[in-house]
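Researcher: I'd like a candidate sequence for this fold, 334 residues long. If you have to choose between options at a position, lean toward the conservative one.
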């Protein structure tokens, strides 16, 4: 589920530690179980597994990073930062760990005063630049840094020229990402024709690379929402849903989120969220407890308190630390 600056960044797979680092940490079985719980949105189970691993070895960088990611998904920014900072201290050579720390800083900065956010901006940029330097082929890290360069003012290290240089770097191994980054550059410059062209180029690149352009269609739909081009938004999102029909993956949840933000087609939005939650492609990109909560919010707006509370309860069962689901419980009076 993409929202605002840093949750808008496309989340990617974990980059593994070296074999030596792995052996010093969690067992393969424990690591796989934690990742499975993370992808299924089973936050309480994932944190329980990771806490056990950290009790056995408090310096397990991989467990700390996975803990950071789970807390990040639960929007527990301060705790996520603490875990990510510790993982970077232990394994400073990991591009992925620096990237996740930058993301956690970014979400925190999005929710504090301007003065505090200003102070944090340098740390955000430093972590993303470290991630991109440590692994120049970490597409997630380059995309994150590029998004920072697009949105940050020059006095905080931003700049469209810097972002374009990263897009050129992405051209060589991740064309989908390069097209999206260029679309963001054009959109920032209010060149909406250029932005649309790049979003459509991303669809072509995704179709060529993997045969599934579901997320690229959803990104185009989100662009149309920002431009209030409602009919084109719906058409793009429906194309994305067709592309996602094979696996009912996270693109469906993203499309539903766009419809909800646009206050359009609530029945279609709820159907897509249900399809995602009932499918076999749950992922960290759209945590199940977040989708349950959004679905509950949709039902609540429609006046269906019983179905809303059912979804909130499902979210709380997965992630007792997810504040929006707990607050929804209070608001429904149960």
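Model: Candidate sequence:
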């Amino acid at each position: 589920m993409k929202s605002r600056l840093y949750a808008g960044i496309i989340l990617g797979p974990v980059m593994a530690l070296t074999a030596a680092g792995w052996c010093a940490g969690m067992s393969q079985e424990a690591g796989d179980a934690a990742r499975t719980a993370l992808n299924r949105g089973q936050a309480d189970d994932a944190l329980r597994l990771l806490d056990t691993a950290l009790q056995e070895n408090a310096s397990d960088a991989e467990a700390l990073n996975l803990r950071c990611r789970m807390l990040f998904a639960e929007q527990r920014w301060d705790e996520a930062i603490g875990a990510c900072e510790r993982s970077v201290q232990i394994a400073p050579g990991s591009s992925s760990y620096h990237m996740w720390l930058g993301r956690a800083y970014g979400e925190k900065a999005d929710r504090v005063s301007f003065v505090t956010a200003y102070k944090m901006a340098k740390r955000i940029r430093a972590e993303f630049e470290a991630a991109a330097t440590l692994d120049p082929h970490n597409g997630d890290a380059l995309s994150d840094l590029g998004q920072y360069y697009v949105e940050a003012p020059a006095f905080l290290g931003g700049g469209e020229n810097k972002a374009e240089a990263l897009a050129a770097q992405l051209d060589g191994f991740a064309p989908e990402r390069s097209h999206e980054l260029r679309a963001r550059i054009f959109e920032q410059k209010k060149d909406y024709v250029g932005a649309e062209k790049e979003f459509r180029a991303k669809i072509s690149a995704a179709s060529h690379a993997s045969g599934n352009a579901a997320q690229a269609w959803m990104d185009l739909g989100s662009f149309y929402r920002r431009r209030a081009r409602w009919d084109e938004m719906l058409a793009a999102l429906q194309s994305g849903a067709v592309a996602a029909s094979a696996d009912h993956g996270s693109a469906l949840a993203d499309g539903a989120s766009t419809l909800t933000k646009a206050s359009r087609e609530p029945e279609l939005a709820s159907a897509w969220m249900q399809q995602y939650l009932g499918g076999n492609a749950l992922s960290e990109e759209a945590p199940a407890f977040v989708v349950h909560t959004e679905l509950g919010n949709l039902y609540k707006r429609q006046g269906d308190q019983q179905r809303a509370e059912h979804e909130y309860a499902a979210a709380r069962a997965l992630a007792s630390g997810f504040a929006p689901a707990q607050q929804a419980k209070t608001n429904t009076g149960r």
